[in-house]
């Protein structure tokens, strides 16, 4: 009887987990945007923000049913966004000399009122040309006999070079920046496991014709970086990273090879916490340039490409097309207790709905 009950319980938990991992993407109603929008973040299922290259930041309080435009800053290309809570957030810009009509040289803006007002953030150190991604580590500590939290915030950029990192270890009150151009020439994304250790998506050369995809590893809060993966083909960069567990991680690999006979698209995967990486095939399609990647768990994940999305249910061994809209650039999944929810952004803004 006990064995039967335990078997039933295990099957019930497995079925529940699988059903949580099986969902579909629903396009949300947002203002039209002609190109790829780059980042979206949520602090709970209902409240979130997204940014785009028109210098606009939008906020929702109802899980994406409606959106309020909080700011429109001409000449600014907002590239990435993160919030620590309902009030404190940061937005990064891609900077000048890359996209047309971009004049804003300020890399980082912050808000303390939920996005009603945004102001430039001062920082010490190396001049930062632009940013492409944030990651945040929440650290628990004892403050006058009470448990409290502080946030370590990491921002990296940029596409097209140069490679810089901005870091705050006091919840965004102060920032320091430095170059990591000796390790990699561009920075597209970052994932930190704790305040010291993490990985960054990079490229080996600022000339795309000579560039290989590159993954970097740090163990000292981004001060120094070591190469842990480099592709062998030209015209390649990495783009986005997703670690559904501490040991298992995935990185999207972009190919810009002008030879249309070069069709094979690949991702990089680690099963040992980033010590080593292997390449896995996705599809044979010269037009399927990869962008965002996001995994719900170690098996179930999504990949955005220029013209369509792809999904896997076996840890990247096989992929099939799915609708995530065009140029899906950032895919974020969140878990609150047993509930999983997700949002994604590219040409469209989408919500992941459990079937």
User: Low-confidence runs (pLDDT<50, min 5 residues)?
Assistant: 1-18
Order of helices and strands: HEEEEEEEEEEEEEEEEEEEEEEEEEEEEE
Distance between the termini: 33 Å
Largest sheet: 5 strands, mixed
Task: Round the Cα radius of gyration to an integer and report it.
Answer: 20 Å
Q: Count the E strands.
A: 29
Main sheet: strand order: 10-14-13-12-11
Mean pLDDT: 94
Helix content bin: under 10%
SSE-based structural type: mainly beta
| Percentage of residues in strands | over 45%
Count the DSSP helices. 1
**Any idea what the shape is?**
globular
Topology (elements, then pairings):
Elements (H helix, E strand, L loop, with lengths): L1 H20 L1 E5 L11 E4 L5 E5 L3 E5 L7 E5 L5 E6 L5 E5 L14 E4 L7 E2 L3 E2 L7 E11 L2 E12 L6 E5 L7 E4 L6 E7 L5 E6 L9 E6 L7 E5 L5 E7 L6 E7 L8 E7 L7 E7 L5 E6 L5 E5 L3 E4 L7 E3 L7 E7 L2 E7 L3 E6 L1
Quick overview of this protein structure:
This protein is mainly beta.
Report what the structure shows.
The strands form 7 sheets. Strands 10-14-13-12-11 form a 5-stranded mixed sheet, with no helix packed on it. Helices cover 6% and strands 46% of the residues. Strand 4 (56-60) and strand 5 form a beta hairpin. The protein is globular, with a radius of gyration of 20 Å. The protein contains 1 helix and 29 strands. By secondary structure, the protein is mainly β. The two termini are 33 Å apart.
Brief descriptors of the model:
355 residues, mainly beta, 5-stranded mixed beta sheet, globular
């Amino acid at each position: 009887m006990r064995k039967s009950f335990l078997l039933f319980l295990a099957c019930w938990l497995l079925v529940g987990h699988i059903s949580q991992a099986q969902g579909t993407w629903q396009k949300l109603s947002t203002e039209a945007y002609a190109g790829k929008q780059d980042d979206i973040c949520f602090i709970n299922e209902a409240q979130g923000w997204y940014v785009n290259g028109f210098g606009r930041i939008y906020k929702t309080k109802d899980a994406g049913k409606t959106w309020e435009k909080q700011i429109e800053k001409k000449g600014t290309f907002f590239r990435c966004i993160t919030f620590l809570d309902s009030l404190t957030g940061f937005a990064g810009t891609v900077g000048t000399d890359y996209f047309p009509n971009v004049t804003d040289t300020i890399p980082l803006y912050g808000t303390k009122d939920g996005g009603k007002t945004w102001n430039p953030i001062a920082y010490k150190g190396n001049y930062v040309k632009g940013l492409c991604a944030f990651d945040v580590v929440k650290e628990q500590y004892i403050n006058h006999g009470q448990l409290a939290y502080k946030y370590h915030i990491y921002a990296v950029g940029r596409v097209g070079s140069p490679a810089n990192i901005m870091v705050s270890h006091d919840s965004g009150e102060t920032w320091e920046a430095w170059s990591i151009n000796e390790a990699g020439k561009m920075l597209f994304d970052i994932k930190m496991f704790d305040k010291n250790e993490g990985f960054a998506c990079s490229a080996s050369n600022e000339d795309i014709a000579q560039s290989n995809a590159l993954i970097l590893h740090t163990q000292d809060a981004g001060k120094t970086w070591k190469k842990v993966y480099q592709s062998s083909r030209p015209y390649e960069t990495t783009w986005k990273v997703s670690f559904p567990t501490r040991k298992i991680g995935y990185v999207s690999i972009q190919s810009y090879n002008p030879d249309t006979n070069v069709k094979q698209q690949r991702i990089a995967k680690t099963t040992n916490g980033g010590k080593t990486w292997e390449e896995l095939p996705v599809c044979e399609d010269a037009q399927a340039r990869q962008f965002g990647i996001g995994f719900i768990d170690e098996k179930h994940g999504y990949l955005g490409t220029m013209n369509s999305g792809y999904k896997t249910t076996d840890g990247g061994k096989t992929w099939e097309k799915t609708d995530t809209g065009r140029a899906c650039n950032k895919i974020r999944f969140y878990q609150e207790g047993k509930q999983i929810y997700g949002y994604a952004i590219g040409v469209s803004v989408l919500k992941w709905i459990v079937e």
